[in-house]
Protein: LSME1 protein
Amino acid sequence: MEMPSLEFNLPDTQEEGKLYVVDSLNNLNKLNVCAAESQPSLDEEENTGGTGESVAGSNTRNQCLFFITFILTLIISLALVSFVIFLIFQTRNEVDQISSRLLSEKKNIEEMKKINNIILKHLNQSRIKE
Structure:
């Protein structure tokens, strides 16, 4: 029986090793890039003395902008609600006026019906006499 040969293909091993090294370098580069993005830049540190004042100033500015926007939104909402309430009262007054007119017209119509009935009775009586 022949024993299988235990030959190593050295060129393939070197290729795999090269790929491993390239992958490791890529991973290391990714770690360095991600870490650099999360840290403040050197220019910012030099301008602020490394204390992070620009970040605090930015947060304060963002908070002020948020509160100003919030207050303006509240004022506009209050104005709109007031206008809607005003329109509701105006509509209510108009409906009350219209309903009172309808009631008075209904009374007028009933009176006219009574007068019409009286006139018809009178005419019927006058024809009977003739």
Confidence is low (pLDDT under 50) at residues 1-10. The radius of gyration is 47 Å. The first helix runs from residue 10 to 38.
